[in-house]
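Private note to self, pasted from the team thread so I don't lose it. Backbone tokens:
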């Protein structure tokens, strides 16, 4: 059939509140033009993030009922650990309350001042946790990954030549290397198996431990199955197992492809580093068999990690992004092409070509989409990744000005997406009237979460 239906049926509903445009203007003003600060009850369609915002299945809710809340050595932990080992294959599995906690622990025990960490593209919390330890996060994505309109099947790939050149010069200052699948900051773009394999080879050449940021591992595996020769007949589990076999460990925010509302983990093979990580876990998160999570959370995660590999679900999810992307392109709106796995990324630089990066066109678009239709997205541009010149204090823009519309898993139906498409197109028609923004207050780290802004 030509119509691809949602591979689930609705069992429970949650009401969403309608608001008027004048009301939304006031809510936005009160939030200092930062939609992170708007109450969720005043959002109609929330595409802020796909992290922890999905709907759990009946099987996950059933699993929660057998949650073992023992402080140490619960049955829930061992069910979770067994699932992670089956998919990722690593010796040590360390639960955390979410992905940034896994990053904080890993970098806290592995990094020191002056170190460098290469990646295809670090996401915001990964970069912030590297920099918090006074190390440098280095992005080495392929050139195609920086050109929104460029078509490439694996735009998340590591630039292998640049990685080789970088490590030849700096390997003594690199305690670990990473790759992010899918590459969130670059448009949710996948990384090929060949690129993961070659990235691993280069890291091993310089004896550098290799970690995968695997928040969306199943989506990446699905792209490999569909786009990379030799994998069309392999299961998502088989492809995932091969991806992880090339690395020494991984970090995961399970709020993405774990299909849960809270949770994460750090996994690795290194005994000494795992011991240090568990000591840090006990100090800051909880005991080694719960890591800040309830037993029921671990049981829901054990089920979610398997459900996310169902191909009917992955086909529907990837097709949803393609559908929205096709409609926006037909309307003349530039996006990152091809669409990725969990979101559509609008090129705000071309959307508002009359606004300079110093007036944050991505944040302007986020605000205008909320005002026009009650839709909340997130800026991935000079507010999130821009920096200030240490000498002059002037803003240094990010390479791209994007707005990410991230889709909660198993939450919205096609009519919600059609409404969102209509809102984006109407906003585009009125683009010449949009006004730039300026920062009036910002924190020292991750400023996009809490920064206050005002019209220029």
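Design output:
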């Amino acid at each position: 059939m030509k119509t691809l239906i949602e591979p689930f049926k609705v069992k429970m509903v949650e009401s969403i509140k309608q608001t008027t445009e004048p009301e939304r203007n006031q809510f936005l003003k009160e939030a200092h033009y930062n939609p992170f600060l708007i109450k969720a009850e005043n959002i109609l369609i929330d595409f802020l993030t796909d992290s922890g915002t999905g709907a759990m299945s009946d099987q996950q809710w059933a699993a929660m009922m057998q949650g073992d809340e023992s402080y140490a050595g619960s049955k829930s932990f061992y069910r979770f650990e067994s699932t992670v080992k089956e998919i990722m294959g690593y010796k040590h599995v360390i639960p955390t309350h979410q992905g940034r906690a896994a990053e904080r622990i890993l970098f806290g025990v592995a990094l020191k001042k002056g170190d460098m960490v290469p990646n295809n593209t670090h996401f915001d919390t990964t970069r912030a946790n590297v920099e918090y330890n006074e190390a440098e996060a280095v992005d080495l994505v392929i050139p195609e990954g920086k050109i929104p309109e460029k078509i490439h099947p694996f735009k998340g790939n590591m630039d292998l030549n640049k990685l080789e050149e970088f490590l030849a010069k700096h390997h003594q200052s690199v305690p670990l290397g990473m790759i992010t699948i899918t590459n969130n900051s670059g448009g949710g773009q996948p990384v090929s198996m060949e690129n993961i394999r070659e990235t691993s080879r280069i890291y091993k050449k310089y004896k550098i431990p290799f970690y995968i940021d695997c928040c969306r591992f199943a989506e990446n595996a699905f792209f490999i199955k569909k786009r990379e020769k030799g994998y069309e007949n392999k299961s998502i589990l088989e492809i995932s197992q091969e991806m992880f076999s090339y690395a020494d460990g991984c970090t995961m925010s399970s709020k993405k492809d774990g299909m849960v509302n809270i949770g994460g983990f750090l996994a690795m093979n290194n005994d000494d580093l795992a011991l240090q990580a568990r000591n840090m876990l006990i100090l800051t998160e909880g005991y080694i068999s719960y890591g800040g999570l309830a037993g029921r959370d671990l049981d829901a995660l054990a089920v979610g990690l398997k459900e996310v590999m169902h191909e009917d679900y992955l086909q529907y999810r990837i097709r949803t992004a393609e559908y929205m992307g096709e409609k926006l392109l037909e309307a003349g709106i530039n996006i990152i092409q091809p669409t990725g796995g969990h979101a559509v990324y609008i090129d705000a630089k071309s959307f508002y070509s009359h606004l300079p990066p110093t007036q944050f066109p991505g944040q302007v678009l986020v605000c205008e989409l909320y005002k026009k239709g009650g839709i909340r997205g997130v800026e991935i541009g000079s507010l999130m990744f821009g920096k200030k010149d240490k000498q002059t204090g002037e803003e240094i823009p990010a390479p791209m000005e994007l707005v990410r519309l991230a889709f909660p898993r198993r939450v919205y139906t096609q009519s919600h997406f059609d409404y969102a498409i209509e809102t984006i197109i109407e906003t585009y028609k009125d683009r010449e009237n949009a006004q730039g923004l300026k920062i009036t207050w910002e924190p020292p780290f991750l400023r996009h979460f809490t920064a206050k802004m005002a019209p220029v």
